[in-house]
Design a protein that fits this description.
The structure is a single chain. This protein is α/β, with parallel strands linked by helices. The chain has a single domain, classed as Aldolase class I (TIM Barrel, Alpha-Beta Barrel), CATH 3.20.20. The strands form two sheets. It has a six-stranded parallel sheet, with helices on both faces.
Length: about 210
């Protein structure tokens, strides 16, 4: 596991985090290589496929310097399994009481999901200084996070959900956004077709977005 200093440093250089659902373990190594070659330093692999945990382990083995996190973490079992697979960080879409109990025993990087000011305040009081804002576009978009920057300047966010190349810059320009998650960099169709060069190209474009904002 990594600490928040390492996590923040990685995001400072490449603040776009691909949020990916990978269906086949054999896609893990070429996917990791394409993301790194494109200039991205992290990826969130959602626990929405049977292969997800094996994919996380394979990506870490293929590209050890790539920060690979587990997303869609919902239960204590997900927390344990993701950590055993070698996840560098954990991301949740929201927080139930049981999930919060499970996360309380983990000292690594966790980005719990929120979609309101009250949730953001509660998670900060529990010790979480970086939160996932989800579903970003449906829950108020960049304007919502801009509104939180005044009263809650001590909380940082990684918005995910509905972000695309045309709007991700609006989020990254905000002072309380340290990264943005997006699914457009590698679709299921891209991976099934073995379009690693296309994924690398989109990763490079995403990395450049982060540098120009």
């Amino acid at each position: 596991m990594i600490d928040f200093a390492t996590f923040r440093n990685a995001l400072a250089g490449a603040p776009i985090v691909p949020v990916l659902t990978v269906e086949a373990v054999e896609h893990a190594a070429p996917l990791a290589a394409a993301l790194k070659a494109g200039g991205l330093g992290s990826a969130e692999i959602t626990l929405r496929s049977a292969a997800a945990l094996a994919v996380i382990a394979e990506m870490k083995q293929a590209e050890p310097s790539l920060l690979v996190g587990a997303g869609t973490v919902l239960t204590e079992g997900d927390v344990d399994a993701a950590l055993k697979a070698g996840s560098d960080f954990l991301v949740t879409p929201g927080t139930s009481p049981d999930l919060l109990k499970a996360l309380a025993y983990h000292n690594g990087v966790v980005l719990p999901g929120i979609s309101s000011a009250s949730e953001a305040m509660a998670r900060f009081e529990e010790g979480y200084g970086v939160l996932k804002f989800f579903p970003a576009e449906a829950a108020g978009g960049a304007n919502f996070l801009k509104s939180l920057a005044g009263p809650l300047p001590h909380i940082d966010f990684m918005p995910t959900g509905g972000l695309k190349p045309h709007n991700v810059g609006d989020y990254l320009a905000l002072p309380n956004v340290i990264a943005a998650g997006g699914t457009w960099i590698a679709s299921a169709a891209d991976m099934a077709a073995g379009d690693w060069s296309g994924i690398e190209a989109r990763a490079r474009e995403a990395a450049n977005i982060g540098k120009t904002v």
